[in-house]
Amino acid sequence: MMHMMGNGGGFGFGWMPLFMLIYLIVLVVIAVLLIRYFTGGTKRGKSAIDLLNEQLARGEISEEDYDRLKAKILDSERRDRR
Fold it and tell me: Would the pTM count as exceeding 0.70?
């Protein structure tokens, strides 16, 4: 009878902290994935050219300003690659 009450064999409480930790990790991973899914994930921001195109489309800048700014952006990108 004493043998049944011991901490020896079986699936006792010794494993409980490990399973709680695994459960917590799974919950955190699920939460992170849900947050990324609903907030757009790891998408990069828009490029400078994309923003410039949008400004032109909305009429916020003239075509002359667009051409001048686009040339500056492209020149800057070329210099950064070197």
Answer: no
